[in-house]
Amino acid sequence: MVSTDRGLATRPVGDFAIAYLGELARDHGADPYNRAMRDFEETRVWQSLIFAVIRFFDIMVREALFQGIEWHMWLYYMPLFVKGIARDYRVDDPLADPDDEWPIRYSFRLYESFSVMRD
Question: How confident is the model at residue 1 (pLDDT cuts 50, 70, 90)?
Answer without folding.
Answer: very low
